[in-house]
UniProtKB/TrEMBL annotation:
EC number: 2.7.13.3
Transmembrane feature ranges: 7-29, 153-172
Lineage, uppermost ranks: Bacteria, Pseudomonadati, Bacteroidota, Cytophagia, Cytophagales
Domain Histidine kinase residues, every copy: 235-452
Keyword field contains Transferase: yes
Protein name: histidine kinase
PROSITE patterns to which the protein is assigned, alphabetical: HAMP, HIS_KIN
Length: 453
């Protein structure tokens, strides 16, 4: 997940937590307030009922009830019970509350209890030496409706707030990461051919400026290193080839000299063969080094993979005349545009030639099949052989320069061909997958992205 999306989600989660906590606080506070107000109203009614019951003057009793009806009104499901003492078992059935409710009844404060949406109060009243206990109950229908409306409002408000939080969080994170995205775009555009390019630095005196300066310092060091390597490879290619050419030429001239002793002839032959090997090794090493930074700076063009593989077959035929390499065209895509890749023909030819020659060599010239196909992204080339295979524990090392598998002692080689091919494929934004079984053969599958159309 992108950091930008993570920040958006974290911002949203933090804000959601704050809004949720505030909503819960508002809900609880409102609920307590409404409940306290309703209990107070119920206590006033219980007090009026109690004083009316203690009033000996019946006219005044009617006044109490008239005040209650005219100014206070009845509450939903309002009930009252009056007793001179604590309610007995029969009376308690009317108000089935726990024993603690009745034990807390005293003159000091009313007792409140809430159960199943019903509010209960117990008031002990004393007048003219007489005492009685009034227990009243009612249901706060209006309060319940208000709480339901408040709950609905808070839920809808929370959801709407989340939409706004996500939208503004996304805009906020995009604005924050705009300099980072600009750096990423600029860095992606820098390669071995334009190492002189540098990132634009804003005088913002922040971490983004420090990051840009660090990238530019790194590019300075890379440019110097690549330039030194480029010069070394260009010069070394001539410096190596010249003496090797002289040595092989002198050895060849010695072989053609008539009348030389047999031991000298053997020496000249050995010198000539070893110089050829050394020249091949030097050329391979230089090619391997050049693929690391595109030192030759060849132009890249559109290449059809099927035509390239035909060129590879021709190159292999010149080196191993009796090879058994076959090309399978049965899986070619219907849309031939999926066979066109952007690359350097010379480098790709060298890469596939090295893989095919390896397959021929390590299979003792048994049949090698090349299959060309494509998927939604890549042009794919499979090269299958029936050779000695690669030990499973060593497959991960076959692209390391100069590494040779443990079962290749009887075959000549330097461990350069496959690393060279791998570097070339990676240079073309591709990849190589290897599946092998000792004694059964090896399959190299090369994926090269075809040109977008």
């Amino acid at each position: 997940m992108k950091i930008q999306n993570k920040i958006t989600l974290l911002f949203m989660a933090l804000t959601a937590g704050i809004i949720l906590a505030l909503s819960v606080f508002i809900y609880i506070f409102t609920s307590e307030s409404i409940s306290a107000s309703f209990f107070h109203r119920l206590e006033v009614r219980a007090d009026i009922v109690g004083h009316a019951a203690l009033e000996e003057n019946k006219y005044r009793t009617s006044v109490y009830y008239e005040i209650k009806e005219r100014h206070l009104g009845d509450l939903p499901f309002e009930k009252h019970t009056i007793s001179a003492d604590l309610p007995d078992e029969k009376e308690r059935k009317i108000f089935p509350m726990p024993a603690s409710f009745y034990s807390e009844i005293n003159k000091a404060v009313p007792v409140r209890f809430y159960q199943n949406d019903t509010s209960y109060v117990a008031v002990q009243i004393e007048k003219a030496g007489k005492e009685l206990i009034v227990i009243s109950s009612a249901v706060d229908l209006y309060g319940l409706e208000e709480m339901a409306e408040l709950r609905k409002l808070l839920i809808i408000g929370f959801l709407i707030a989340m939409v706004f939080v996500f939208t503004f969080g996304k805009l906020f994170s995009e604005e924050v990461f705009k300099p980072i995205r600009r750096i990423i775009r600029n860095v992606k555009g820098i390669n071995a051919l334009n190492l002189h390019q540098r990132l634009a630095i804003d005088d913002s005196n922040d971490d983004v400026e420090a990051l840009s300066r660090t990238f530019n310092e790194m590019l300075d060091r890379l440019e110097i290193t690549f330039e030194m390597q480029n010069n070394f490879v260009s010069n070394a290619s001539h410096e190596f080839k010249t003496p090797l050419t002289v040595i092989s030429g002198e050895a060849e001239l010695g072989l053609r000299t008539p009348g030389i002793p047999e031991n000298a002839l053997v020496s000249f032959r050995n010198i000539y063969q070893e110089s050829e090997k050394l020249e091949h090794l030097a050329s391979s090493m230089l090619s391997l080094a050049q693929t690391g930074f595109d030192g030759k700076k060849e132009e890249w063009n559109d290449i059809r993979i099927d035509e390239l593989i035909l060129s590879v077959k021709e190159a292999v035929d010149k080196i191993i005349a009796d090879n058994k390499v076959g090309i399978n065209f049965d899986s070619l895509p219907e849309d031939d545009r999926k066979l066109i890749v952007v690359g350097n023909k010379t480098l790709l030819t060298a890469a596939f030639t090295n893989i095919v020659l390896n397959s021929c060599k390590y299979s003792d010239n048994k049949p090698v099949e090349i299959i060309i196909r494509a998927d939604g992204t890549y042009a794919i080339v499979e090269i299958r052989d029936e050779g000695i295979g690669i030990p499973e524990r060593e497959i991960g090392q076959i692209f390391v320069p100069f590494f040779r598998a443990s079962n290749t002692e009887r075959y000549k080689g330097y461990g350069i061909g496959l690393p060279l091919a791998h570097n070339i494929v990676r240079l073309h934004q591709g990849k190589v997958e290897v599946v092998s079984r000792v004694g059964a053969g090896t399959r190299f599958t090369t994926f090269l992205p075809f040109r977008a159309f």
